[in-house]
Amino acid sequence: MERRRDRRKAEIVRTATELLSEHGYQGMNLEDVAERTDIAKATLYHYFSGKDELVAAVIEALTVDVNRRLEQELDKVGDRSHLEQIRTLIREQIRILTDTAPEVATLFSWPTTWPDSFQDTIKESRRRHDAIFRRVVEAGLAAGEFDCPNPDVALQCLHGVLNQSSLWIRPSLPPEKKAELWEAVVDTAARMFSLEGARR
Asked: What is the pLDDT of residues 37-78, one digit of tens each?
């Protein structure tokens, strides 16, 4: 029973994610979630007390999933240079935003329709996400491998570049063109942290 409940809850969250990415917070409603999930609206209230609790679950699920993907990729290169680690994170983040989970870009890169009540939730999500990149940058600085005068500014610039990439690396591009653009962004963004980039 518990597994079945968890599966249904996850299905509801996935459906709500689709609707949020399609219509934004204001355009998403529980009636559409219920219809697309093929359950009665009243049944939704067995899982979530209302729209805001469901939306909060969407934000948390996406945050956990993105951070898990980043950590998995980082684990694969944990014994390599900090430059290779930051390049790996940049590459995976671009892949998430432009290929494997474009709804993340829709909901987090340009969150223009979030009500004020969700601002703290979004900030906390971004803080957790940023911490993964920050950990690598701080380790690279401590090891003398990176040279950026202000890591906070560099990280803000990096996230700006990553968010922007979701606008011009379109899903409709051929795979080889997307891969070429991914690597171009990785090369350019990584220069903000590397000693080589600092000398240019």
From this structure: 999 999 999 999 999 999 999 999 999 999 999 999 999 999
Fold of 60-199: Tetracycline Repressor; domain 2 (1.10.357)
Each domain of the chain, given as residue ranges in start order, spans 60-199
The string over 45-58, giving b where at least 16 C-beta atoms fall within 10 Å of a residue's C-beta and e elsewhere, is eebbeeeeebbebb
C-alpha 47: how far from chain center: 25
Tens-place pLDDT, residues 84-114: 999 999 999 999 999 999 899 888 876 566 8
Q: Which residues of 149-173 are buried (b: 16+ CB within 10 A; e: fewer)?
A: eebeebbeebbebbeebbeebeeee
Q: How far apart are the first and last CA of the chain?
A: 61
